[in-house]
Request: fold
Amino acid sequence: MNTAICEKPVKQNNPTHQLQWERVNCNLCGADDTEIYHRERLPYFEQLLDFQIVRCRQCGLVYTNPRLTDHNATYLFGTDFNPKQIEAHAHAKQTVFERALNEIITLYQSNNPNAAAPVENSPPPAPNSPTLLDIGCGSGHFVALARKHNFQASGIEPTPASARYATEILNIPVHIGPIADIELPPQSFDIITAWDVIEHVADPLDVMQRCANWLRPGGILALRFPSSTWQKIKALILHNLLASRRPVFSPTMHLYFFNVRTFTQLAQRVGLTVLKAKTTPAEANTDNLLLNYAKLTSQIFLRTIETAGRTPIGNLEVYCRKLI
Ligand SMILES: [Zn+2]
Reply:
């Protein structure tokens, strides 16, 4: 397992950075038949750029098109290593991680009644305990939590500063690099997670196929991602009603925006069935009381719409099972 730190060129704040754009067909159905869903203007390397978010007329997938070829450059190439900042971010996500892990444990046990149940605080993980891979594990806090619950957990992380924290401070095993460069044995994981990842990748169908290949039959894939519907509602309120320039879709690095229907189609394409989809709770931001208040207000508004429509439309947590 590769635990070396990859040094990448730093492009941040480089005014000479040359932008390259590309147009892509729909990742879900392959069509090139879209309508404008939203427009957003935002800064990127000291340039103000206009983006369009489009919706496929054939299948409904929402995506950024055209898009920057190095769309993750703003954070992927950063080499800042700030443990205090990383720990504050992890602390804000702690409750979300704990709830998600409880959901995974319940689903795992429901399909594996004869398997040893994960037991909290029994490190190191036993050789026969369930295997878990966290794609885009960041600083490794979800992997560390899973290992506390006796999962044989490891991560994949392309960002050097985050991977450094995970390997050096939390001492967890991490494959460093983009998921497309990582080779792992097929059918080697009981559980794969990808929190806030699928919206960043250039080819979600390829990533889902890799996950399905790495999962054992009956294995669980859990993801969290911003939904197209909730982003659109937030954008309408912020940009149209409040005349704010605050980015919502953030298309310099977010390329795809699924909802329950389009994600279910994606999962089916790779042999997974969706077990559960729910709106994920917004994590607290302890540094900014105004932002906390705005988040709380927006969540109450969101719950009202969801109750009326009887479907989750907020930022989504989706749990799938690989068909046997
Ligand atoms: Zn399509």
Remarks:
- The chain has eight helices and 13 strands.
- The chain has one domain: 76-322.
- The two ends are 29 Å apart (CA to CA).
